[in-house]
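note to self — DONT lose this again. spent like an hour looking for the file last time. sequence + predicted structure for the chain T wanted, 216 res
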Amino acid sequence: MSSPRRPSPQVARRRQLVAAVLGVLLLALVIWVVSALMGTGDDETDQQGAGQSQDDIPAPEGSGSEQDEDAETGNAEQPDDVPEGHCHPDDVLVTADTHADSYAADEAVRMIMQVRNVSGDECAIEVGTAEQTWSISHNGSEIFTTEECDITGDSFERDFAAGETVRADLNWPRSDSSEDCSAPAAIPSGEYQLTVSVSGTTSYPHTFTVEGADPE
């Protein structure tokens, strides 16, 4: 009696990738529903990766890099009148980042959103998941956006101290959201751009590199 045929290394690795990214996405969706946001103290503790304090909302530990404020964010046009105690759009800096500059074919992409109060006073910002959008493009075409995914968004208004930054993390399982938000797609190798937004304030794109999956 012949023994069962073993799958090729390429097929085995693809099966492992699918299982891994599906597990990661399920965790990310749970975090999304409860509004994944973490607060940090100041720039010095951000750069050292120490002194982080967790908010009332559960979230995985995030990491990112501070970049030039004028070059890293773009604000949608909004009226000058804002409710008392709320941050003016000009005082909100939103940046996009990833935990690595490049990803192998078997790695999910860890996306990072940072929201900062750049004013000199404490004020409130609506940072709930209902107000967040995460989008990934390749060669000018959108590949993934949370707006196409069936995710329940929540509202969460948070007080930001002057200069305070919070961040949220979400994993992209290399999927095409126009087809399926959780299943890995046969995406090509190359540069990709991540853009994030919250409450109408949008970041400039952050570029990272992805190695395409092996053909079946």
